[in-house]
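Table S2 (text version). Query chain:
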Amino acid sequence: MQKKLLLVNKKDKVIGTETKEKCHDGRGILHRAFSILILNNKNQVLLSKRSKFKRLWPLYWDNTCSSHLLKGEGYESAGRKRLKEEFGFNNSLKLIDKFQYQAPYKNVGSENELCALLVGKYDEEKIKPDKREIAAWKWMDFSKLQKSMKKNPKKYTPWFKIGVKRLKKEILSNEQDKEKLNSILTELTKKVDPVIKKTLISGVDKKFQKVVSYQITTGGKRLRPALAIICCRMLGGRLKDVLYAAAGLEILHNYTLIIDDVIDKSTLRRGKPTTWSKFGKSVAECVGVYYSAAIFQAANKSKAPVLISEFFAKTIKIIIDGEILDILFEQSGRSDEPYVMKNRYREIRKKDYFKMIGKKTASLLQTSCEVGGICAGAKEKELTVLRKYGFNIGMAFQITDDILDIFGEEKKFRKKIGRDIIESKKGNIVILLTLKELNSADRNKFLKIMKKDKISKKDVREAMILIEKTDSRQKAYQLGEGFTEEAKKDLKALPQNKWNEMLRILADFTLEREK
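Corresponding structure-token output:
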């Protein structure tokens, strides 16, 4: 029995069903469909050549894959299923547009579709095309594809040409969003950096001021102060109301980084030597104390000093809870630390991981948003929404960090790639998902590597081979995407202005960043 396609009207409302054959006879009957475009980080599009057995447009170059929705299916889930069937990988997809078109093919039949355009990113090499559906495939630079379509339009399917035009608009829109975000982050950094530096060196002997300032001068996105300022401005607050609190948040963040680098013995951060590797462990610990004092100096100059000081104190404690959990998730090392050896986690569940990153990473972004609201005199309902938004982008931020730790480019990420493997950290979502997906023999191989006292470059390569056997990267991305979507939903309950738009762009940035 043939599966029936969904017939729709121009508003995409289902009005009946019909067989695939009848939907494509004559001028065609308007039905629901989707078209998928997969891009990689080189801005190349994954193209497929349609099988010679296709009724319509056989051996034409097409988008990555296309299909029709059946009763009860959603666009994204149906798209992921089809992508797996035709190319052998499961990928997160985003619906960016819908378009209606009618196109005849010779005297054979027609396409008459209301088509959803789904876009996704994929950078792995695990491509296994279904030869019954796909005659050939290739990656093609997006700009070259546009030129080729203009020069040789008859080589490409009609819906693919429409999809590329719509994708061009999406790419331009994303580039504009990035420009807006970079512009606002640069502007806010110029405002907050002098306050950070002034607060840090206040009361410090001139001889040590360069040492104290080093951590801040290594760079950073200034995401936490930016969140505080943007949330404050969105709710009608003034820059001067939030500036010192914002500075305190960045000092707090860098304070935790100094500690984290000492604990993990990390020698590189932001492409530069870490504070302890440059000045020594004992001096780095002293610098950390300077930072802890400066946090509360900044709070005392803020609009609500007592309340914000309490927020900072609570957040530090929560972050350190998360830091200890992260240490206990490690699978080897620290044999000279009895507490760690006794309390180390042997099995880590997804909920354990979420608890750890919720404390270690998301809590500070949550506090940043809430502090911005407090400085603007926000109502409790508004503060609740800000807390949820900050927490959700914090979770997405750490998941992206985990993905970049395994799959990032070292020059862009500015940290050592594979560091979590080298440090035997199970508190990385890619590693957790890999262990869940591997067969018993490969899982034991992976765990054996993770439990070594010293992990070599060869061990890291072997671990990467095992990771690449799985869909852990895409599954991790989908988890992060879930958190960003929740964050963007929260924004609907807040004032709709240019600052709200910045928070939406920031939510996307946390997942799409490369460093």
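Notes on Table S2: DSSP finds 20 helices and eleven strands in the chain. Residues 158-201 form the longest helix (44 residues).
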